[in-house]
Design goal:
The protein has about 140 residues and is an alpha+beta fold. About 15% of the residues lie in helices and about 45% in strands.
């Protein structure tokens, strides 16, 4: 199942300037997904982080993986209209700088669910190289 940005916005509440997913290329609701986020040269954050050496802040890479995870969970019919919040971030490793022009290939897998709380493993790749990996904890909430 392919989802474009407009279809993603029908599932998760994130909007510009804080929507960090351009496409979902595969989705198994409640289980796994793969997606992409293109880091455009004119992305506002690069003007200040850092002007002479633009690098994506690691927290935004983690947020993009979390948004992919939100698509995984909120695509389940029973979670329609809910939101997914961070409950924790564990074992984050930044292995490669993320630069303007990079296309981030995101992967996420839900590993455990107990009630509204869950765990997921997430990874980001650039040109086939592992750039970021993390274990994420989340809470599903009716807002």
């Amino acid at each position: 199942m392919d989802l474009d940005k407009e279809q993603i916005k029908q599932i998760i509440p994130h909007r510009n300037p804080f929507l960090f997913l351009d496409k979902v290329s595969s989705l198994e609701p409640g289980k796994t997904a793969q997606g992409e986020w293109k880091l455009h040269e004119d992305f506002e954050v690069f003007k200040g982080h850092f002007p002479d050496y633009p690098v994506l802040p690691g927290v935004l890479a983690v947020e993009s993986m979390a948004q992919l995870g939100a698509v995984v969970m909120l695509s389940l019919p029973e979670n329609k209209g809910k939101t997914v919040l961070f409950a924790g971030i564990n074992s984050v490793r930044f292995k490669k700088e993320l630069k303007p022009g990079d296309t981030l290939k995101l992967e996420g897998e839900v590993t455990k669910i107990k009630g509204p709380i869950g765990k997921a493993k997430a990874s980001t790749y650039v040109n086939g190289e592992l750039a970021v990996e993390a274990d994420l904890l989340f809470a599903i909430k009716k807002v």
